[in-house]
Specification:
alpha+beta; about 50% helix; 2 domains; H-NOX domain; binds protoporphyrin IX containing FE; single chain; 4-stranded antiparallel β-sheet
Length: about 180
């Protein structure tokens, strides 16, 4: 997992809970990286799971809620860090449709060792977008937070329904997104 995902996570924790919380959770985790992340480095995605699990213990917020909140937060950070991806799409649906065939393709050029999920999308009707997440990594909640961030950013009122369809080899979540 790319270092930017870790550096932004620790920045969010520091902003919301303070510096001491960052120290406490890193002390708990005994990470191979020692928590010394650089944005361009690559680290085991299990370290991400260890950090959010430790934060959950210290904050009494569930891991699921932390990961969703983080996805939401990161969306707005991406807007600041990589504004070029926001120039084309005019709505949440258009943005989400550009993730797999445009944004993540460019991310892969920037970071060839990025481990990116797959998203299939199709419009079931003018108000409903189906978005199917599949990945070797268990980050469907992270995707959910990013989707919520997208909806809030574009000020589109979207109901999100989810159905998990994990198999032995992959994690899969079907998102049914309906404009209200
Ligand atoms: C400007 C927008 C975006 C940028 C720049 C971006 C970039 C990235 C980067 C750098 C990673 C890390 C890859 C790695 O760790 O190896 C990543 C992973 C991921 N991205 Fe995006 N992303 C964007 C939007 C989105 C959106 C809107 C979604 C959800 C619909 C999404 C879903 C994910 C997920 C779930 C992962 C974790 C890897 C996995 O589950 O396999 N991304 N993205």
């Amino acid at each position: 997992m790319k270092g930017v995902v870790f550096t932004e996570l620790l920045d969010m924790v520091e902003g919301k809970f303070g510096e001491d919380m960052v120290e406490d959770i890193l002390d708990d985790c005994e990470l191979e990286s020692d928590g010394a992340y650089t944005t361009v480095g690559t680290y085991d995605h299990k370290e991400f799971i260890k950090i959010v699990t430790a934060l959950s213990k210290h904050s009494e917020i569930s891991v699921k809620d932390i990961v969703i909140q983080y996805g939401h937060h990161l969306f707005f950070r991406f807007n600041k860090l990589m504004p070029e991806f926001f120039e084309g799409p005019k709505s949440a649906f258009e943005f989400l449709e550009s993730v797999h065939n445009h944004i993540h393709v460019e991310v892969k050029k920037l970071y060839p060792d990025a481990a990116l999920p797959s998203f299939k999308t199709h419009r079931q009707s003018s108000d409903t977008l189906i978005m199917i997440y599949t990945s070797k990594c268990p980050f469907a909640d992270f995707a959910q937070g990013l989707i919520q961030g997208t909806a809030d950013f574009y000020k589109d009122d979207i109901q999100i329904k989810t159905e998990d369809k994990n198999s032995d080899s992959e994690f899969c979540r079907v998102f049914t997104l309906t404009k209200q």
